[in-house]
């Protein structure tokens, strides 16, 4: 878990050496927070938007891809519509950081070339920074996140309560859940069983990696 370097309340200050950080705005979501900081350094000031993924490196709570899709899409919109640089960091700067970067690169490649070469993208990442995405779980997670981003079903809540329970809408949602229930089977295989105690975390198999990659490849070719 990274040390928090920002004030905890709106319009309060946090001093870090010669730099002062003021929290201007904060929006809280289920798995991430978005903050706006005003940064002061000497006679300079700058406004920064801060996306905080609540992904503790000591837990597996964010291994479900749908939990990360909103943040990944948020980053993608910034990279598509702005030249402002993005800084991504985590505790060691390799697994969680690498996962987000690899997802963004893969989505950019899918959009530009209608295909994704995860191996090539990760190889390029590791040539720039060793040990990026060095766990199989994170490597598979990038596949699942990208697949979810490309296939996600938008289901905004409608003003009319009856419209939310329209039979066609429900059928569409159930079909979507059925098509993606294999996500759960893969992710659950990484988690320890509740009993017996002290059970070690299971690791993904090579077969699972091939299965995920083939599903993603089939999706891109079909488009």
Q: What are the salient characteristics of this protein?
A:
45% helix; 2 domains; 223 residues
Give an overview of the whole structure:
There is one protein chain. By secondary structure, the chain is α+β, with helices and mostly antiparallel strands. It has two domains: 1-54; 58-222, no CATH class. Helices cover 45% and strands 15% of the residues. The chain is built from seven helices and four strands. Strands 1-2-3-4 form a four-stranded antiparallel β-sheet, with no helix packed on it. A hairpin with a 2-residue loop joins strand 1 and strand 2 (19-28). The longest helix has 19 residues, at 95-113. It is globular, with a radius of gyration of 20 Å. It starts with 12 loop residues before the first strand and ends with a helix. The relative contact order is 0.10. It holds the Pfam family Y_phosphatase. This is Protein tyrosine phosphatase. Residues 66-140 form the Tyrosine specific protein phosphatases domain. Residues 1-149 form the Tyrosine-protein phosphatase domain.
Q: Which SSEs are present, and which pair or pack?
A:
Blueprint: E1 13-16, E2 19-28, E3 32-41, E4 44-53, H1 65-81, H2 95-113, H3 118-128, H4 136-151, H5 167-179, H6 181-188, H7 206-222
Helix pairs in contact: 1-2, 1-4, 2-3, 2-4, 4-7
